[in-house]
Design a protein that fits this description.
The protein is α/β, with parallel strands linked by helices. It has a single domain (5-246), classed as TIM Barrel, CATH 3.20.20. The protein is 43% helix and 15% strand. Strands 1-2-3-4-5-6-7-8 form an 8-stranded parallel beta barrel, surrounded by 5 helices. Helix 11 links the parallel strand 7 and strand 8.
Length: 249
């Protein structure tokens, strides 16, 4: 089995002082982890996170970036600005960005390409809503999100991408997909990538599960054959809980 990629998505939480305290607590707890550990923190915490994780096994990610390198885009952050800080990863297309801020498959693609061009490693989120799942459209939605959201991503670029399957109905709700539901959906997604890039590229691709994964259910999810890690929300805000997920399998 692959090692896992465990990424914490802090969302809009933690002041700089709070972030520094959390990172200092987390560093020794995950120091001997065999899995890849990433923390995706608010923009205001990035500099502190990069400095405090230097020389450790913790990688730092941002939660979004723009598709242009500069320009009249008030409030946005360019990928090169993140790289200059020492940021390695960036979350793109999270369901909260799609739901609240007008993110589309087209803008996900544009941000992903810009991040790749700047040398960042995108964590690209896809997933269906409850209504889409209940109406039998899950596969249709996931196929569209892959085909449209990765339209111009080359096979070489795909090697630097992580995909996060996040069923929208399981994010921040406390409802988690069963181990089997998560694995079946990720297996389907891997099949879509196989059609586009070939079986070897799809097998090498890391596809995480995100959606209320916590220290209680992580082991079962991470032991499924197609689940290559987790994108962790609330549980990543508590060092001991996040560390337990990092060490879960």
């Amino acid at each position: 089995m692959k090692n896992k990629i465990i990424a914490g998505n802090w969302k809009m939480n933690k002041t700089r002082a709070e972030a520094e305290a959390l990172i200092k607590e987390l560093v020794p707890l995950v120091a001997d982890a065999r899995n890849t550990v990433i923390i995706c923190v608010p923009f205001t915490d990035l500099q502190s996170a990069v400095e405090l994780t230097r020389g450790t096994n913790i990688h730092v990610g941002a939660q979004n970036c723009h598709w242009k390198e500069s320009g009249a885009f008030t409030g946005e952050i360019a990928p090169s600005m993140l790289r200059e800080l020492g940021v390695e990863y960036v979350v793109i297309g999270h369901s909260e960005r799609r739901t609240y801020f007008g993110e589309t498959d087209a803008t996900v693609l544009a941000r992903t390409k810009a991040a790749l061009n700047a040398g960042l490693k995108p964590i690209v989120c896809i997933g269906e809503t409850l209504a889409e799942r209940q109406s039998g459209k899950m596969e249709e939605v996931l196929t569209r999100q892959v085909s449209e959201g990765f339209k111009d991503v080359t096979a070489e670029e795909l090697q630097r991408v992580t995909v996060a399957y996040e069923p929208v109905w399981a994010i921040g709700t406390g409802v988690t997909a069963t181990d089997e539901q998560a694995n079946d959906a990720i297996k389907y997604i891997r099949g879509v990538f196989a059609e586009k890039y070939g079986k070897a590229a799809a097998e090498a691709l890391y596809i995480q599960y995100g959606g209320s994964m916590n220290d209680g259910n992580a082991k079962g999810l991470l032991n499924m054959s197609d689940v290559d890690g987790g994108l962790i929300g609330g549980a990543s805000l508590v060092a001991s809980k996040f560390a337990a997920i990092v060490h879960a399998h």
